[in-house]
Amino acid sequence: MSDAKSNDSFKARVYAIVAQIPEGRLMTYGDIAGYCGQAYAARVVGGLAHFGPSELPWHRVVNRFGGLASGFHGGREVQAQLLKNESVACTDYIVDDFKELRWRPTL
DNA sequence: CGAGTGACCGCAA
DNA sequence: ATTGCGGCCACTC
Question: The pTM is what?
């Protein structure tokens, strides 16, 4: 909300955004980090995701190229399968309409 | 407690 | 247009 300054840890904000990503939608680490207030903390988003709760739709989070990242819970093939399961056209671990599916959080 | 690593991005030349 | 480099935060061991 209005404050949303630094009451919660950075990871809390990242998890909140990722958890709010709708189906068929994708987001990039830089975008999430940017919406968290630190566009330079893109690495943190990835790091948190590596240890983050598998309950969050990390499979909807991709890199700048719209491709699946590594270290996903289970494997990239699983992530690709999940995206396909969400009607997301992904080819060779790369989202086809990534630029079109790039979702923007509702502030 | 301290140090290192990490699924990255943006910019510059 | 392409390539190379640096930098920030949090988590884990």
Answer: 0.89
